[in-house]
Amino acid sequence: MSERVENKETQPVGPESPEAFLQVVVAPAFNRQIEDLRRQLGALERELEERTGVEAAIALHVVGEAGGVWYLNVRNGRMEVGTTPSVPVVFSVYQSTADWVVLAAEGQGTPMTGAAGRRGALTRSRIARLRSISGTARLVLRGESDASARNITLHFGPNDPAEPPQVTLAMREEDARRLREGTLEPQAAFLQGLVTISGDVGLAMQIGTALFM
Question: How many Cβ atoms sit within 10 Å of the Cβ of residue 80?
Answer without folding.
Answer: 11
